[in-house]
Structure formats: C-alpha cells, structure tokens
C-alpha cells in the first residue's frame, strides 16, 4: 500500500512538472488587473488611446509621479485614477475615504485631491516636450472598479468620482441618452485638432513608464524589472536583455519532454531610438530553461517578487 502511494505521488509530481508552469500565479494584488481592465473598457467606450502605468517627471519635487492611466480621445485627455476598493465607503470632512470591510476600517488619502495634483504636473511635462494643450482639455477622474464597492451617502462624493454602480452603467457615447452618463467624460466638449491628439499620443507613448509583465491568466504586474535568476548558462544567454538595449520581450515554449527540462524561446526586440518602428532584424532570440525566473519589484511594494519565466507572456521595459 505504501509503495502504491509513493508511486501515485511520484506520478502527480511528474505530471505537474511537465504540464503546469506555475501552480498559482500570485500577483499579490488585483490592482494591476483592475487597471488594465478599466483601460480596455474606456477605449471601447470612448475610442482613443489609454496610456497605462506612466511615471511623469515632476520638476518641483525632483521625482516621478505615478499616473494610473491617461485616456486621450478626440475631445479631451483624462487622467484616470483607478481605485480597486472594496467595502462600505464614505467621505469624511477632509475628503478622505473611510473604507469599512469585513475585518477592518481604513482611511485612504483623498483620491480626488491626488488626481487633481497630477493635472499641472502632466501639463508641465507635456509643455517641455512641445505639446501645448487647449485650456480645459486635460481633466481627471477617479474610477471605483471593484464590484464590492458600496457608497455611504453617495451625494458626498465629488463629481470627479465614478462609483462602481455608475461605472457599469457607462455606455458607448453614440448610445448615451442621460445627461449624467453623457457628461461622465466629454461633458459637451468640442473635438480638438487631430494633430494635437497625434502629438499627445506620441509623447505619452514615449514617456517614462513602469516596467510591465503580462502573465498567463490575463494577469499583469507593474514595477521595476531587476534581473533574471537561473543557471549561469541561461543568465549569459539573457545578458543582452537590458533596458538600454531592449524594449519588449516575449516568451514561447519550445519543447515539453526530454532529458533536459522544458525549454523556452525568448524573443526580444531591440530598442528603437530612431522612432521608425521595429523591423524583423531588430528581434533576437535565445533559448533557456523554463525554471529561469524574473525578479521584479512591484509598484507600491517594498518586497521583491520572483516569477517563473514559463508563467510570463511578455515583458515591456521603460527606457
């Protein structure tokens, strides 16, 4: 009986080793996933382009300010702060959010005030890069994307806040009939010149950003890529993947069985400083073991996380 049990466990371990890259990909927080989900839906609702995970230089503080996303449409640009907050939420006299969940109550800094502070910082950065926006073109919103978000006295929330109940009611502009929903973003603004939008999108697409991991299971991590961990041979093969040289990395599995461990094909795109777009010759390829890991420090966390390369679909590195 004991022998059969050990054989059964051995079979499970072998199957798990070959057929599963990771047991559970624990990102540690669903905040990043919420951010990309909101960005995707806003693009579908209003068209335009959503720029996610920006780090905008602030001259006054000498540091970079993190911006969840900026949505650029034909009528406006909106700084969007995404709050993945669950529980019963109210606003105190100082504008802070008081969030009561099943186990605790916490106070969050005023998210609207934080969002408004980002507007002049982004405008100043854009001016430095030659983009002068029409007056009133740039605004801010706070979107509460968690289905378990509940308001206490919803009238106390500023107009810049889109609660979850309002968020799920948003529809494409062509179908908007009610005054509130139609004004949720555009608010009757007129279209701006296409040349301004094109230049704005170009500058934002080349602005400093958080490094980005796309993981299996539609999961994302924003943070700072640190290094690869693995066999010396694999680390040497991956030695050219540095942010000064590489902008994008994609991962593909190449084999399943054999004497050696499963192999991964790592394709990386050389960074294009000419602005002409990547060509076929800009892509390079190396093969490494699937047990190789990526180390990254997630945005807002003091802990370094490691992810198996086999769990990664792609990685984007900021310049």
From TrEMBL:
- Protein name as annotated: NERD domain-containing protein
Signal peptide stretch: 1-16
Q: Does the keyword Signal apply?
A: yes
- What's the gene? LOC101255376
Tell me which residues make up the NERD domain: 30-145
Recorded hits in InterPro entries, A to Z, give: NERD
Q: Name one Pfam family in it.
A: NERD
Q: Which domain of life is it from?
A: Eukaryota
Q: Which UniProt keywords apply?
A: Signal
Q: Which organism is it from?
A: Solanum lycopersicum
